[in-house]
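wait is this the right file?? whatever heres the structure
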């Protein structure tokens, strides 16, 4: 999968263009993308996801935290089998683009031979464009078109909003079921204060992107991937009140039975279960003892 951000880039091969914000890449998103990929294969075209590095609602005055930052979203798209990723910032200029201008962009720049979108996808200035405009445009220009209706489960429409609600409540299993995989942080391991190492629990540190949703501060049972390797562990999301060494939000993970140097390497930390809130302990020993208890519970949870 190649990744393009330049709006002036043009494609030579015909593409089935798959439209959406795709925040969280939940099950409904995955279904929509799979339809686009299958359509492209059937008609000997490439598949292309058109999406944004941010959430359009932020620019339009609606508050909404990202479930995935741009790098995490790009990492998740690698699993979909799509050929191309066109990911650009939704800014004031794009918000002012007329609906017909946007549809012309799909054919002129993205070389669309087909378009796949959700029934609620809106585009153009003041969100004037919708599914009927796409259907008419495709019919007039001889393009393939597939509009995907809402996908539901027993609790209602599967949506990014529902995923966010579960994450804010620390309901990681429920969020993971909607997403098709656990909520995760992805990035380069950075240096911390190495307090965990002195307690016998060495950790790796990630610092989340600004604007990414923050689940409840506390301890999570987690699975970390680095390259092809997989490790179980404990992850603390928060500011480490017992140590009081920083007010910066961190994602600090202790990997079980692991003591290698991962500084500068990209890792993916999946939060599988919220076990307890962040606590200010009376001293380092009390904190260390509680980590030992948390580790035992985590190993039981994972069946280790």
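ok assuming it is, sequence goes like this
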């Amino acid at each position: 999968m190649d990744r393009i951000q330049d709006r002036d880039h043009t494609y030579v091969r015909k593409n089935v263009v798959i439209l959406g914000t795709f925040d969280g890449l939940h099950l409904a998103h995955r279904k929509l993308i799979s339809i686009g990929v299958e359509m492209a294969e059937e008609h000997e075209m490439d598949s292309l996801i058109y999406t944004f590095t941010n959430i359009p609602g932020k620019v339009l005055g609606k508050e909404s935290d990202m479930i995935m930052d741009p790098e995490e979203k790009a990492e998740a798209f690698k699993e979909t089998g799509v050929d191309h990723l066109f990911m650009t910032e939704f800014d004031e200029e794009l918000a002012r683009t007329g609906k017909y201008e946007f549809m012309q962009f799909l054919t002129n720049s993205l070389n669309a031979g087909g378009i796949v979108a959700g029934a609620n996808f809106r585009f153009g200035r003041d969100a004037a464009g919708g599914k009927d405009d796409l259907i008419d445009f495709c019919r007039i220009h001889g393009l393939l078109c597939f509009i995907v209706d809402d996908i539901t489960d027993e609790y209602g429409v599967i949506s990014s909003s529902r995923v966010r609600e579960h994450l804010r409540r620390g309901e990681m299993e429920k969020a993971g079921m909607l997403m098709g995989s656990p909520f995760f942080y992805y990035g380069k391991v950075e240096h911390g204060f190495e307090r965990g190492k002195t307690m016998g629990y060495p950790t790796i540190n990630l610092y989340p992107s600004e604007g990414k949703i923050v689940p409840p501060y506390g301890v999570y049972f987690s699975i970390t991937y680095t390259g092809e390797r997989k490790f179980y562990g404990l992850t603390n999301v928060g500011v480490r009140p017992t140590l009081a060494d920083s007010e910066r939000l961190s994602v600090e993970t202790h990997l079980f039975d692991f003591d290698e140097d991962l500084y500068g390497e990209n890792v993916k930390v999946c939060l599988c279960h919220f076990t307890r809130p962040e606590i200010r302990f009376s001293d380092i020993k009390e904190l260390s003892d509680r980590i030992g208890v948390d580790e035992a519970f985590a190993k039981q949870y994972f069946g280790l």
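The chain has a mean pLDDT of 90. so i think its the right one actually
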